[in-house]
Design brief:
Necessary for normal cell division and for the maintenance of normal septation. With 194 residues, the chain is an alpha/beta fold. The protein contains five helices and seven strands. Guanosine-5'-diphosphate binds next to α1.
Length: 194
């Protein structure tokens, strides 16, 4: 299966150093939303993506390889309050430039804590990316922290937000319970197959 073969490829620190070749799917999300945990869970690996104790401290773009010139790009988490505002603004601008201009990018996996989805910065990422016409798949993470009833409710509400946008899909995800892995794999697999 797609994610099981995922391997660390390289780290880059600025947009000029991005690789020229290959197709990529990017993972983006607020710092602490559960992005590293989701990548590790999908890859069935405990420490492939680093779960940082100081979120926002290391602003790197990490590349992972699925094989056959297909990549996963782990974008720096945004919105971490303790990073100086100027540094945050700089990285948010880079994220915007990447999302808008990156031709190797075929789809975005947007990681959001299911207890607070669609924050202002999440919406900013979508405002940048949706005009490209490329697909977005939203993972509502840490769904184990909600009751079954509340998780169904939040899933329905977020889906409703995107009812007019067929390019956006949404699912629940839990790294703790390893729930939602197959659904993500199916969507990302379809992007690469197109
Ligand atoms: P990142 O900053 O987006 O990469 O977030 P991390 O993956 O480092 O996760 C942030 C915190 O949320 C960590 O303390 C994780 O253990 C916790 N976490 C991540 N995913 C889950 C999940 O599915 N369930 C629960 N209960 N906690 C999670």
């Amino acid at each position: 299966s797609l994610f099981r073969g995922l391997q660390f490829l390289t780290t880059v620190n600025d947009l000029r150093s991005l690789p020229n070749e290959g197709l990529e799917v990017a993972f983006a999300g607020r710092s602490n939303a559960g992005k590293s945990s989701a990548i590790n869970t999908l890859a069935n690996h405990t420490r492939l993506a680093f779960v940082s104790k100081t979120p926002g401290r290391t602003q790197h773009i990490n590349y992972f390889d699925f094989g056959q010139e297909r990549r996963l790009v782990d974008l720096p988490g945004y919105g971490y309050a303790e990073v100086p505002a100027a540094v945050r603004a700089h990285w948010e601008k880079l994220l915007g430039l990447y999302l808008v201009n990156r031709s190797n990018l075929i789809g975005l996996v947007l990681i959001m804590d299911s207890r607070r989805p669609l924050t202002q910065l999440d919406c900013q990422m979508l405002d940048w990316f949706l005009p490209t016409g490329k697909p977005v798949h939203c993972l509502l993470t840490k769904s184990d922290k909600l009751s079954k009833q509340d998780s169904i409710k939040v899933l329905r509400e977020v889906k409703k937000q995107f009812a007019e946008l067929p390019q956006v899909t949404v699912q629940l995800f839990s790294s703790l319970k390893k729930q939602g892995v197959e659904e993500t794999e199916t969507i990302v697999g379809q992007w690469f197959a197109q």
